[in-house]
Design goal:
Oligomer: homodimer
Shape of chain A: globular
CATH topology of chain A: Rossmann fold
Helix content of chain A: 25-40%
Amino acid sequence: MLISILTFQGFNELDSLIALGILNRIKKPNWYVNICCPEVSVTSMNGVTIMAQSRLENIEKSDAVIVGSGILTRDIVKNPEIMGMLKLDPAKQLIAAQCSGTLILAKLGLLGNVPACTDLTTKPWVQEAGIEVLNEPFFAENNIATAGGCFSSQYLSAWIIAKTEGVQAASEALHYVAPVGEKEEYVERAMRNIKKYIF
Amino acid sequence: MLISILTFQGFNELDSLIALGILNRIKKPNWYVNICCPEVSVTSMNGVTIMAQSRLENIEKSDAVIVGSGILTRDIVKNPEIMGMLKLDPAKQLIAAQCSGTLILAKLGLLGNVPACTDLTTKPWVQEAGIEVLNEPFFAENNIATAGGCFSSQYLSAWIIAKTEGVQAASEALHYVAPVGEKEEYVERAMRNIKKYIF
């Protein structure tokens, strides 16, 4: 299982790295999670530079792709070079978009008539692209999921784990990262958000 | 306000970067948040390399310090060179420790007889250092706070903002990062966790 987390210049740290941390709770030899970037390094919306673990060429062979979020997404969707490299195929891949990542899926024509989740700032841009935006943290249909609000990246990650490794594995991954003393509450809420979209 | 987030080799991505994202919600000219490392770059427990934004020399002049967590903390507390550079002073600084960061505060002798929070893995090591570990996500006394479980880094960050910029500013920062459709629930729970420790 190769999971790529698309991370662009100006990225939101929470969106890419909460997902990375949770997905890496699966400790299996063929489970690979990587930060996938258009350049050798990217600098976040708050000035943190991280090194790419793979480049956009990696997307096509990924089993799951999370499209991360950031403050430059509206420029990215106007960049034909980057957009042309985002070879996503929901027939073969799990595709998940976080916050402004939903705008990328919309512009790629992957959402069709399916409603979606995004953050409050990106909402008007996704609506302008013709997509109904839900007042929900998470929504999925078949192999495409979207989430809104940084902390809902836990739901995207849990959905990918649940779809591939099962509900129990997703619960355990979430249990690990949840606050001490609130673990059951966190896991229960997350599973409530994703369970109806798993099968 | 200079806030340094201590981030070591083997760091937990969620612990350092959730805090960084939330603290950067304060948009004021004198509000600086930085990833502070013993080396020019550090690589996380899951192989993500980030560039330091400052070095350990920066700690002494910081107004607030978050001691991040990671898989190498038990080695770090045995490293006299690093431990000697952690010049923390709760009389002048807000000091916050996340998960295994609590072990560093314990070994520096900063916790005294005060109970603390940490993650479930680090718990026996903190207890061995003579500190009572609470089954709670967050605890603070005066200028020292500790948190347990990756997602409780939101409580550490909110505590720092509430202590310096007020409860309203902390609520707004949390509201931004919380999942769409669950924002009130997230903010209410966070404020319930920190409010009694603010004044």
